[in-house]
Structure to design on (421 residues):
């Protein structure tokens, strides 16, 4: 960088948080207001695409072009300097200078680390040079789609949101998919046992196979190093020419840690998204706020609003809210929020219609909603979620399962609540 260039705000990471921050800064006129340039450095060859749409892309439901909200000219027109495919490898805080893998040096005046997270691979004995992959980036999906997937035996490890979307996408492409999951039912962190069973049954009827309460023990490859089979922890072997890891994520925080920033599971930030260095912010899945890390975009959008304000010298305070989860599998609507693990004092209201496949479950505890699950007809979801966040006093009447109008009661409604031990 030339010595006479304007000082820069540098953003590391061109993922969903980095892109959303660019949009917010442009909308606020950041460059004119602060005199700082904006530089974005991304590790992936593609910048600013909608990662959420990788699931429908894999399933063949959207075109690749649908992933971008902005054309390449937008960055030029807004005066944003882009570096793609060249990860930052070191932050020198004393010189306020970054080094990238290609050896380039970039000075910063303010820095935002938005490096996201990566797949946490489950440990499996053995090795295969070919056939083991992840479901995180456009590169991952492109590589999966290069293969002839028809009739290919595939194993997806993990039946959370990502694992199920990967499995169903691959099945829709013709693969024979088995999902191996440690939990007793899919999405066990979002669904109660009954909801999980209903979801598993729906997916199984489409042709997905499940190995629940199982882990992978070993992999076997042919002489060329191509994956052939996977051994489960009960000793059975599954035919598998592809293994997709989708059983969890971990924050990419090492860049911050190695620069001496305070870190836990992510780069620690305060309510203004400031790290332990006042010139450095962390945003999105790489950050840790009040001991929590993030895995869905909703709270990250709230972080972006706060950080854009803070970078423009305005007040801002990030208050995290629990998120609702939606599954993106066509033909199976699912809406879930709260923690479905059993808790003393829970009272579950449930309804299941075998004809339509409608499943509704609402967990009340201490006079308020604690969790909710809807499969198939999810129309009540946003209303339930609203009352969950607002901690609206509720009565355990079955109308909660059916009638949205009856639950939109005024918040001053303070009837005594039945307590179930
Ligand atoms: C297939 C899929 C489906 C999803 N569906 C949903 C959904 O339906 N709803 C929902 O809320 N969330 C969903 N998510 C999660 C959502 O995508 C993430 O919460 C979001 O992308 C996080 O944004 P981020 O910018 O923090 O991380 P990312 O989007 O991962 O971006 C981080 C970027 O930083 C780059 N980077 C890392 N290290 C460096 C470095 N050293 N130098 C430069 N760049 C670096 C990475 O390459 C990456 O491009 C889904 C995720 C996946 C993978």
């Amino acid at each position: 960088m030339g010595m006479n260039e304007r000082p820069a705000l540098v953003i590391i990471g061109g993922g969903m948080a980095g892109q959303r921050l660019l949009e917010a800064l442009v909308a606020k006129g950041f460059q004119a207001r602060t005199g700082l340039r904006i530089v974005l450095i991304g590790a992936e060859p593609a910048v600013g695409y909608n990662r959420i749409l990788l699931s429908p892309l894999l399933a063949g439901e959207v075109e690749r072009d649908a992933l971008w909200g902005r054309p390449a000219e937008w960055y030029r027109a807004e005066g944003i300097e882009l570096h793609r495919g060249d990860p930052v490898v070191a932050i020198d805080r004393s010189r306020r200078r970054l080094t990238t893998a290609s050896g380039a040096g970039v000075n910063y005046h303010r820095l935002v680390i938005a490096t996201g997270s990566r797949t946490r691979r489950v440990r499996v004995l053995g090795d295969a040079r070919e056939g083991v992959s992840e479901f995180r980036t456009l590169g991952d999906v492109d590589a999966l789609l290069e293969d002839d997937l028809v009739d290919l035996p595939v194993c997806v490890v993990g039946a959370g949101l990502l694992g199920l979307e990967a499995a169903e996408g691959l099945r829709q492409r013709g693969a024979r998919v088995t999902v191996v999951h440690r939990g007793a039912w899919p999405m066990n962190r979002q669904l109660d046992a009954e909801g999980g069973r209903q979801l598993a049954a729906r997916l199984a009827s489409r042709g997905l196979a499940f190995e629940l309460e199982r882990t992978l023990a070993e992999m076997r490859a042919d002489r060329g190093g191509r994956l052939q089979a996977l051994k489960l922890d009960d000793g059975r072997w599954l035919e598998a020419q592809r293994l997709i890891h989708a059983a969890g994520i971990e924050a990419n925080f090492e860049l911050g840690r190695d620069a001496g920033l305070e870190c836990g599971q992510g780069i620690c930030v305060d309510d203004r998204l400031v790290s332990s260095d006042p010139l450095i912010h962390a945003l999105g899945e790489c950050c840790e706020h009040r001991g929590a890390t993030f895995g869905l975009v909703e709270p990250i959008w709230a972080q972006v609003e706060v950080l854009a304000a803070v970078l423009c010298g305005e007040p801002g305070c990030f208050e995290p809210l629990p998120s609702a989860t939606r599954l993106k599998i066509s033909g199976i609507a699912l809406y879930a929020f709260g923690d479905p693990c059993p808790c003393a004092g829970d009272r579950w209201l449930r309804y299941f219609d075998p004809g339509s496949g409608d499943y509704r479950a609402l967990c009340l505890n201490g006079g308020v909603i604690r969790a909710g699950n809807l499969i198939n007809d999810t129309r009540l979801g946003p209303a339930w979620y609203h009352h969950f966040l607002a901690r609206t006093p509720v009565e355990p009447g079955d109308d909660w399962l059916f009638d949205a109008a009856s639950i939109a009661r005024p918040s001053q409604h303070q009837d005594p609540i039945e307590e179930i031990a």
User: Anything to note?
Assistant: The radius of gyration is 23 Å.
